[in-house]
Amino acid sequence: MKRTYQPNNRRKSKKMGFMARVKTRIINSRRRKGRKVLSR
């Protein structure tokens, strides 16, 4: 029997990665705030 979570790194980075976040407003607002770490 397979376990539930089968991690797929490519899909994860496309969905949650840095470049995915750059396309949304999150990164820009954090940059304006002067955050040290923009995304994990």
What's the layout of helices and strands?
Layout: H1 9-16, H2 18-22, H3 25-33
Q: What can you tell me about this protein's structure?
A:
The chain is mainly α and 40 residues long. 55% of the residues lie in helices and 0% in strands. It starts with 8 loop residues before the first helix and ends in a 7-residue tail after the last helix. The model has no long low-confidence stretch (mean pLDDT 87).
Quick structural overview:
The protein is mostly helical.
The beta-strand count equals 0
Largest sheet, strands/sense/barrel: none
Total count of helical runs of at least 4 residues: 3
Rounded to an integer in angstroms, the radius of gyration calculated over CA atoms is 14 Å
- CA-based shape: elongated
What structural class do the secondary elements suggest? mainly alpha
Helix content: 55-70%
Order of helices and strands: HHH
User: What is the overall pLDDT average?
Assistant: 87
